[in-house]
């Protein structure tokens, strides 16, 4: 439940400057179309600036480029970051009651830290370690020898296979599977002989993994999701993949085995990446791209197969003109044929 706050208190919390009445009371935060008197809203995308005069909100979080008169404003450098802080102020995360349910199944030799919450229906395997303040929601299943870091949150029906390592303050949303076997078969399409997947998955601190995403264990060594990476829902990460720090992987992406992504890589939705390639730091891959070979650092690519983003834009601009271009070529071909015939007739 939101708590009423004065605008100046909100501005101080989010690091903004007030233009207007700092005493106005804010009761809630809503989108610019739904906001009404007593609400705080925000403009993070320039295309919504035209709605500033129309909104009924009592105050608006805006960038320093906006100096609209007649509205109570909180002026900040980055409205979206400011909104994040404001939402945390109005809707602080409620703390779950600590304790271990008698309906949870805890294996022998499992080590449980202080202030851990384990709900009914959780299974914890033998030798597993759970760090201080971790929360395991109903239906979570942890295999033998798993390590869960401090203040990690595992939502319902998360499954962590044997020996996998989850860092501190990691969030795993409902249905995430970590450590299922990598898709490794000898003589595929003939014998389909299963190759034992003997490695693990390691997810470093501050990562967040979206609902129903799967991260396969390594054949040897580890599949590794490095610190601060955010993975959306319904993503498939294959065995021995390495994803660098602070990367962002959007929904329905598939990353094939042994591919390595650098730091701060952003992969758009439904992109597919082949195996055994390297992608450099600060690369952006557009939605639905098909990445078939390695990409150097600081590049933006799009298309399937992928190519530099500017080249892809030029190609897309031509596609709409193809019928017209075809008609032009056909007409020119007919005229050329007539000219060639006339030239032949002159020779005779």
Brief overview:
The protein has 348 residues and is an alpha/beta fold. 16% of the residues lie in helices and 28% in strands. The chain is built from four helices and 40 strands.
What features would you describe in this structure?
This protein has 348 residues and is of the alpha/beta class. The chain folds into 2 domains: 5-90, Udp-n-acetylmuramoylalanyl-d-glutamate--2,6- Diaminopimelate Ligase, Chain: A, domain 1 (3-Layer(aba) Sandwich), CATH 3.40.1390.10; 99-310, Hexapeptide repeat proteins (UDP N-Acetylglucosamine Acyltransferase, domain 1). Helix content is 16%, strand content 28%. The chain has 4 helices and 40 strands. The strands form 6 sheets. The chain has a 12-stranded mixed β-sheet, covered by helices on one side. A 10-stranded parallel β-sheet has the order 9-12-15-18-21-26-29-32-35-38, with no helix packed on it. Strands 10-13-16-19-24-27-30-33-36 form a 9-stranded parallel β-sheet, with no helix packed on it. Strand 22 (185-186) and strand 23 form a beta hairpin. It is flat, with a radius of gyration of 28 Å. The model has no long low-confidence stretch (mean pLDDT 94).
List keywords for this structure.
single chain, 348 residues, alpha/beta, Udp-n-acetylmuramoylalanyl-d-glutamate--2,6- Diaminopimelate Ligase, Chain: A, domain 1, UDP N-Acetylglucosamine Acyltransferase, domain 1, twelve-stranded mixed sheet, ten-stranded parallel sheet, 40 strands, 16% helix
User: What is the CATH C-level name of the largest domain?
Assistant: Mainly Beta
Q: Termini distance?
A: 95 Å
Strand content: 25-35%
Q: How would you describe the shape?
A: flat
Low-confidence stretches: none
CATH architecture of the largest domain: 3 Solenoid
Strand order within the widest beta sheet: 8-11-14-17-20-25-28-31-34-37-39-40
* Total DSSP helices: 4
